[in-house]
Amino acid sequence: MNKKYTTQMNAAKKGIITNEMLEVARKENINIDELIEKMKRGVIVIPCNKNHASISPEGIGSGLRTKINVNLGISKDSSDFEKEIRKVKKAIEMEAEAIMDLSSFGKTREFRKELVDISSAMIGTVPIYDLVGYYDKDLKDITAKEFLNVVEEHGKNGVDFITIHAGLNKETIKVFKRNKRLNNIVSRGGSLTYLWMQINNKENPYYEYFDELLDICVKYDITLSLGDACRPGSVNDATDASQIKELMVLGELTLRAWEKDVQVIVEGPGHMAIDEIESNMLLEKKLCHGAPFYVLGPIVTDVAPGYDHITSAIGGAIAASKGADFLCYVTPAEHLRLPNEEDMIEGIIAVKIAAHAGDIGKKIKNAKEWDYKMSVARQNLDWETMFSLSIYEEKARRYRKESKPEIEDTCTMCGKMCSMRNMNKIMKGEEVDIL
Amino acid sequence: MNKKYTTQMNAAKKGIITNEMLEVARKENINIDELIEKMKRGVIVIPCNKNHASISPEGIGSGLRTKINVNLGISKDSSDFEKEIRKVKKAIEMEAEAIMDLSSFGKTREFRKELVDISSAMIGTVPIYDLVGYYDKDLKDITAKEFLNVVEEHGKNGVDFITIHAGLNKETIKVFKRNKRLNNIVSRGGSLTYLWMQINNKENPYYEYFDELLDICVKYDITLSLGDACRPGSVNDATDASQIKELMVLGELTLRAWEKDVQVIVEGPGHMAIDEIESNMLLEKKLCHGAPFYVLGPIVTDVAPGYDHITSAIGGAIAASKGADFLCYVTPAEHLRLPNEEDMIEGIIAVKIAAHAGDIGKKIKNAKEWDYKMSVARQNLDWETMFSLSIYEEKARRYRKESKPEIEDTCTMCGKMCSMRNMNKIMKGEEVDIL
């Protein structure tokens, strides 16, 4: 371990070029000086725990390709260790840059350690999920000190970023109570934090001991992902007082973290009408001083359970094009059940589409090149190249295979009326047969 | 038949309130005077052929709920009449407001007549698809007069709207030839029109005989859907000279149609980067004088064959929220094969999500009510109501059924950690068990 710096942000401030920075600059095809300058300001992070040896580091933030996260983990209703590890491998094969281990029951420590061992993707956790299982006692009996101990344990295990609902402090709760909303607190970690605070009549431990928390983050270089306990759970509640009040607290915490050179990501909505997304991207960037924005969704309508990979692909694409840096996948199982492997695959494809569409929109370097190559292949009726460039090759191949056209180079949609085929012929002065 | 007016637009101009107007005003919960005023100006249409007895009329345009269209039809690669009629019935059951019959081979007339007989949804066609099969001769040998005869035949059969690529005239082709694009003309009807013009060295018959075409439209009250032959087939080609030149011609044709009281819809892209959609909505509304905009997609990235119901749901939702009035569905089979029934279902759900998300965004009256009811049910953990409000009930029910939770009112995603359940308990002062 290089002793000359603590966190990646600390290195940037000292002008030290780390291997992780070099790797990110190479992957993104950007200038290393520009990268360091942005890391110094906190608008780019490289979540990379010093104990995560197998990581292939990725940057998240301003001017970089939008990254995606996949949620996994073992729980009471799904404790099959091996099945979950298979999903992990599939997610990495599908190029997810991050995996959040949301395990809440069973051998969570063993699972987490194996995950860190095998994963080149960055690993995130929500320590509060692990709290009750870890101590095997009632949430109300857990002490503030124990909240921090679990964070330390995750840091030791090599977790790259942790979600902490530190913005749900007593002040935020006052605003929440004065401003009625339809769906209260829908964040799982947020509701647990609220529960603990109400039962014990105490301040949020993550907020009260934020400095101690930062010290742990510095020790392992854990990136803080400041969770949004008050993210809207319905389009009705979006952009309301509770959400914005919490975001303001997160902005203040961001500055405190940066003072100690802790890297920060801010988490965001949630359910949100399509016309509110752009303003919400602006709000986060302003109130949180340009910290990278990590959004779950936004889900643009509440009425499509079974199809929330689509409602969130719509919101995620818009969010990414307007400044979101990191998208959490949502699967077709959202609001209905724990996702299985097929749900995970559909969720990953949808969020990859959203991220890429957003990258084209915000003019990320070379984002359009992929599309250009695909459209050249399409123009040439070069099916093999089209397949190899497809966002999910297996389905594209299968679809064509299941429906063989009369004419080899066309497809059964138009057959001999294929506009690509006919325009190519006529532009070359060749005769065209349609009948 | 009421002899006092020709088309719905003609009635509006004369201040006559038709049954169709009353029905639309009732469905949309808007004032009849406002509806008539907008129909007079052409910014709302009610496509409704006088020979389509079974129709349940719908309005398309300014201030109304975004409507959706489903493409179907028999072709060389799929000539099973009965199978296609089953799809029609399913599409109507799923509340598609329009069905375009894109039949290009076989007993197209019989299919069209049966379709009109059974369909409460409005029916659209692209007469040029039917041309070669109808006369059973080479495209090049078909006369301009014969182009019009097929339109007359479709009108007689009760077709409510027809796509005509009248904007691809000699002037547009000059611009197309001077401004190189990656994917030329990807519109099927547009490429056939181009082919005929090039082989015969003649003006586009739909453009040259536009007045005669209008006379046929008046006779049956066919709504003209002015097709975009130059719609971009890749994000690379979007918003280019060919596309905009053609749109300008469509704007001029719109005014000519309105002069004869023919209702008009204008068709639009296509493949398009997410950051260009809003400007394109504005361009159409300006250049085409507020005529309702009917978009195919926009597909926001070229790289996702097998998932173009998602790429187009993203684009469609944005388009609808920024002024598009009518969305054409795109299925997972796009760019790969003719869609089967399952593809059709997935396509309909995706476009319904896009239309509704767009309606929330453009603040269509009561659009959010559906979401509100769903989120109340979600808050109450009232699964039966959630299912009945779901955009596709079958999948939501199946997903939950396949994965039974430990605690009846929660789901396997969070189990006892369900934020809805726990927040409800704590807000009521009840004890919460998590372990």
H-E string of chain A: HHHEEEHEHEHHEHHHHEHEHEHEHHHHH
**What's the shape of chain A?**
globular
Count the helices of chain A. How many? 19
SS-derived structural category of chain A: alpha/beta
Which residues of chain A sit in consecutive blocks of at least 5 with pLDDT less than 50? none
Number of domains of chain A: 2
- Residue fraction in strands of chain A: 5-15%
Average pLDDT figure of chain A: 95
CATH class descriptor of the largest domain in chain A: Alpha Beta
- Largest interface, C-beta within 8 A: A-B, 108 and 108 residues
CATH architecture of the largest domain in chain A: Alpha-Beta Barrel
**CATH homolog superfamily of the largest domain in chain A:** Radical SAM ThiC family, central domain
CATH topology (level 3) name of the largest domain in chain A:
TIM Barrel
Summarize the biggest pleated sheet of chain A.
8 strands, parallel, barrel
Helix content of chain A: 40-55%
Q: How far is it from the N-terminal to the C-terminal residue of chain A, by CA? A: 71 Å
Biggest sheet, spatial arrangement of strands of chain A: 3-4-5-6-7-8-9-10
SS elements, strand count of chain A: 10
Multimeric state of these chains?
A: homodimer
Question: What value does the Rg of chain A take, in angstroms?
Answer: 23 Å
